Amino acid sequence: MSSPSPRAQEAREAVASRLRDMRRDAGITGRELAARCRWSESKSSRIEHAKTPPSDADIRAWCDACEVPEQADDLIAANRQADSMYVQWKRLERTGLKRLQESGVPLYAQTRQFHVYCSNVVPGFFQTPGYANALLTSIAQFRGTPDDVTDAVKARMDRSHVIREGDHRFAVLIEESVLRYRIGSAEVMAAQLGHLLSVMALPSVSLGILPFTAPRQAWPLETFTVFDRQRVHVETLAAAIKETQPSDVALYLKAFGNLKDIAAFGSEARSLISAAIDAAG
């Protein structure tokens, strides 16, 4: 099945093309390769046409059948990279939410400059325990993941220390609607919004709010994070998408710049948050 991420599909097609060329260089047909690998001819065709992503074992069997086993490791690495560009949440969260929170710690620790745009919820590293608990509970119930919300909230809070520790800088843009979406109780929302007022005072943080009333040339986008201008993580309902192609990273940074141009900062941003606190009560 084709990946919904064009970049991931291109990477998979590149792997498939290399496997097809390998078979042709070996001078064997798809039927003969299938016989050597002891699988159906249709499977060979699906792999060659990037319809079915090959497993590590499939690639090793393919290389062995073409008598070039030394090429297997490189192809496996390329295939894994393509596979990691688009990963469904149900795969990432199959053992619960805690491990997903912990898996991001190394990347967060090594990143110096974050560019973050959120159109739906408060960014994870700005969340209070109460807000995170309400949000992660909703996610676990919606996706039917194992219930480890308490541990996942603790892991998220531990990961959030990055905003106060080390040499990190955070340029963050939040849609005003995020301030108004009720995640948890009124008390939880008021505490979360109050926390936003405190974190925006940190020297490492630049927080902008995109007002409802701002004239827009840049429409609301999906939530994304750019890490050190080198990679982008995009969150959709179904999956997490990673982009490392320089042109794609540049596109997200351009979008961030356009959104920043209409954002409110400083006292104006604090006024929008304070108004949302009053409304939450």
TrEMBL record:
Cleaved signal peptide residues: none
Basic and acidic residues: bias regions: 9-26
Residue ranges, annotated region (Disordered): 1-27
Matching InterPro entries: Cro/C1-type_HTH, DUF5753, Lambda_DNA-bd_dom_sf
CDD domains recorded: HTH_XRE
GO MF: DNA binding
Record-annotated HTH cro/C1-type domain positions: 18-73
Official protein name in the record: XRE family transcriptional regulator
The organism of origin for this protein: Streptomyces reniochalinae
Lineage of the species this protein comes from: Bacteria, Bacillati, Actinomycetota, Actinomycetes, Kitasatosporales
